Q: What sequence folds into this?
């Protein structure tokens, strides 16, 4: 006589607690062999649940057992897209760059971090999709520690959340990031906005009052521009336009906040930094047009800068 099904479920969950990867799969298989073989009713449901867990564990295992995953940094800043499975992260990445990524109507389509470069305000920014952060990630569930390691190296986080879904899935992800002690500038993208109602958006804003919320849909170009503007805001990057022989470049140089004339010189050319004696500045950081300043003069967003060199 089998035990009552709800007791059985509790026993199973207890057996699985803190088991990951192949250990979890082995345990699930063992549980399966011992379940009574009813075709219908609660026991059949338990069997289906156990089978689905085997699949999910196998999928997650391909990112488990990797202590560190690294993403080579490119561009002026690295911004991570983080969110529950199926939130639309890959779709956003694809809309903003030329990478070909799998997009799927099911969870865990993306298994490893995927980087992609996008140009915002004339500056290349690296976006990285961080997949599969699930409850327990900070304790390494689903290979979470390696994924959080990648996230820790980023400059900012955009949380992505399907606006029509309940907030709890996103809350789980945010909790894991916080549990890992990661503290970066963040914004919240309410994804699939074409499918969401005003109510959904207000609810998100209410539930996450500390983050600025940007509604975005890959089907709406204007919303993608808003999304890019939000990313730019998070990077804190300054845009400075170099001027050589009386001509101002169309392509700006992106610099971190606090950058000086010497940093502008280095961004233009490695050798230029050592020979740089200062510069001339037009724009917000100059007291008057063409002001001559020293190497350590802090530049501001929108400055036009001409580097002066010795000799
Ligand atoms: N209507 C609508 N559907 C979208 C939008 N963006 C993504 N989707 C759909 O949402 C599903 C999931 O998209 P993905 O981009 O794969 O989501 P993901 O967050 O990368 O998912 P995982 O990598 O599996 O965690 C796909 O079926 C997409 O076509 C959108 O702006 N509007
Ligand atoms: Mg994906």
A:
């Amino acid at each position: 006589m089998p035990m009552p099904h709800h007791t059985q479920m509790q026993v199973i969950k207890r057996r699985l607690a803190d088991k990951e990867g192949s250990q979890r799969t082995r345990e699930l298989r063992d549980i399966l062999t011992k379940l009574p073989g009813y075709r219908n009713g609660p026991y059949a449901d338990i069997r289906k649940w156990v089978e689905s867990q085997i699949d999910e564990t196998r999928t997650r295992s391909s990112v488990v057992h990797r202590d560190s995953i690294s993403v080579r940094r490119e561009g002026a800043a690295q911004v991570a897209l983080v969110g529950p499975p199926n939130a639309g992260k890959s779709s956003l990445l694809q809309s903003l760059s030329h990478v070909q990524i799998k997009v799927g109507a099911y969870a865990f389509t993306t298994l490893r971090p995927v980087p992609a470069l996008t140009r915002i305000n004339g500056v290349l920014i690296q976006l990285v999709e961080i997949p599969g952060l699930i409850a327990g990630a900070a304790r390494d569930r689903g290979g979470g520690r390696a994924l959080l390691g990648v996230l820790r190296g980023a400059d900012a986080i955009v949380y992505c959340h399907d606006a029509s879904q309940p907030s709890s899935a996103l809350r789980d992800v945010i909790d894991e990031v916080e549990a890992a002690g990661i503290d970066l500038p963040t914004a919240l993208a309410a994804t699939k906005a074409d499918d969401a109602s005003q109510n959904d958006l207000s609810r998100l804003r209410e539930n996450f009052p500390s983050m600025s919320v940007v509604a975005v849909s890959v089907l709406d170009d204007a919303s993608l521009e808003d999304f890019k503007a939000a990313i730019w805001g998070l990077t804190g990057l300054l845009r400075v336009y170099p001027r050589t022989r009386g001509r101002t470049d169309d392509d700006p140089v992106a610099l971190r906040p606090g950058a000086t004339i010497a940093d502008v010189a280095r961004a233009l050319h490695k050798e230029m930094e050592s020979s740089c004696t200062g510069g001339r500045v037009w724009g917000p950081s100059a007291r008057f047009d063409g002001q001559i300043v020293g190497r350590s003069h802090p530049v501001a967003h929108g400055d036009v800068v001409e580097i002066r060199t010795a000799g």
